[in-house]
Amino acid sequence: MSNRNIRDRIQKFNLSQPRDQDLLKQKYAAMRADTENPFVFFRATCHLFYEDLPIQSWFKKAPLVWICGDLHVENFGNYKADNRHVYFDVNDFDEAVLAPCTWEIARLLASIFVASETFGVGQTVAENLCWQVLNSYTKTIFEGKAYWMGEDTAPQVIEDLLSRKSQVKRRELLEERTVLDKDKQRRSLKIDFKKSQPISDQQRQKVEKFIEVFAAQQPNPQFFKLLDAAQRIAGKGSLGVERYVLLVEGKGSPDGNYLLDLKKSLPSSLAPYIIWEQPQWKSEADRIVSLQKRSQAMPIAFLHSVTTDKDSFVLRELQSTQSPTDHLKIEKWDNELPHSEKLMQSLGEVVAWSHLRSSGRQGSAIADQLIDWLNRRFGELL
Asked: Among 4-8, 132-136, 201-205, 263-267, which stretch is predicted with the lowest mean pLDDT?
């Protein structure tokens, strides 16, 4: 455990990265305001977890897998893919690296305990839910085959979430995030200083240059014609990182428009603690997008790695985050225990499928190695 002051460690990490200082202040304010919600702090300080992660020899020598790096119970969610079907999966790969499978599981289990404390869930219940995850993950790895959770394959506890997400129409999102002109023929982004704020002329020129180059490389350049751009305010750990919401022509104005998310890619916060050789990625965005496509059964719509000037960005479709079903919520774990147990089992399956799907790639362990190690460590406990 580091002896450095926690506040100093947080400031050093955030100041080492290019961030909007006003939004960074908002991040700090949110962390202070939620003193009764340690889960918010946990989500916003992924780097602290790995700074203080105890690395016993067995923990460090676990098989290497492609991990998302910031796995916690609210880092699972629903999204629409390019095929317009809805899937449930891990949904954030900003920190993704090659590392021991124990790192991924440890952060997920730690998040269950932190979230349980936040919402007054009993210790015994929290321990039971952790065992549900671990048992499910191990048994799924033993099966050795990756599946997926979609509208027609998910258990009821996940299917309920997916069915609601599939009912969210793009026009509803447009009406939530944009405004029409007086003739109701042209949309522009809604600036509310909660989800978006204005960008500078320099930022607008940068975005316009990017989208022009990107569109020219696409089969239908007109689809990506830029109508408006704003700075997006979103996330916990990444709040303040350069990020835009783009309104593009899509299938035609006004209601055929699409919203895109463009987020600057930074080095993984796990990088200082990685001792295993990593691939030579073209950029940080290439790392994120490559590993997301490798790990998910079907990646989110319009997922691309793009470069503008010296910076790399991840481009993807912006989707609704207003529905409570878009991200897992954990307030009712204890009074709906059978439901919660099945949910935890589903999380274990999703993580295991991700590791199996990306196994044997650029240094990651093959399924047989994972099976053998888990059998030796946890087989007798299952």
From this structure: 4-8
Peptide bond into 299 cis (omega under 30): no
C-alpha distances (whole Å) from 271 to each of 267, 277, 300 are: 7, 11, 25
Give, in order, the Cα–Cα distances in Å from 380 to each of 32, 349, 375: 43, 20, 8
Q: How big is the chain, counted in residues? A: 382
Which residue, among 263, 201, 262, 257, has the nearest Cα to 227 in the 3D structure?
257
Is-contact 53 103, C-beta < 8 A? Answer: yes
Distance CA 382, CA 44 (A): 33
Q: What distance in Å separates the CA atoms of residue 147 and residue 137, rounded to the nearest whole number?
A: 13
Distance separating alpha carbons of residues 137 and 344, to the nearest angstrom:
10
Amino acid letter, residue 41: F
**Per-residue pLDDT for 106 more than 80?**
yes
Which of 71-75, 83-87, 262-266, 323-327 is the least confident region?
323-327
Q: How far apart are CA 63 and CA 260, in angstroms?
A: 36
Q: Cβ-count burial of 127 within 10 angstroms (0-12 exposed, 13-18 middle, 19+ buried)? A: middle
In contact, 300 and 287? CB cutoff 8 Å? no
Residue 52 burial class via C-beta count within 10 angstroms: exposed 0-12, middle 13-18, buried 19 and up: exposed
